[in-house]
Amino acid sequence: MGFSKEPTDYNKTALSDLQSAWAVLRDAVVNDFSFPNSDTLLFYIDEAMSLEFVKNLKMMKELLLLICNIASQSAPEEIIKLAEMVREGLEDVFSAIAEGEKLYQR
After folding, report:
1. Domain span holding position 30
2. Is the N end or the C end of the chain the one with fewer CB atoms within 10 Å?
3. What superkingdom does the record give (predicted)?
4. Is residue 50 part of a domain?
């Protein structure tokens, strides 16, 4: 039995862009952890990035609303803007789904 080769070509999808936006937001919160509720914000960001929420994007959308609300109350402007970028990325995913784009490549 042979070994499978690791794929070398990947299709960039709306879902991969969303994953990147989440990672950038998380890094920004970790790097500027001094603002009020930063620990709560980080907890919910990690929750939203979990497999459970990736498999159920409607749940992610609800949690993202909470994240945006927490950020708007106490986070620096940069983090608020990054949370908005995540929201835009999630909307792009929903648009891609509506257009029939394949989000997962096997």
Report:
1. 14-98
2. N
3. Bacteria
4. yes
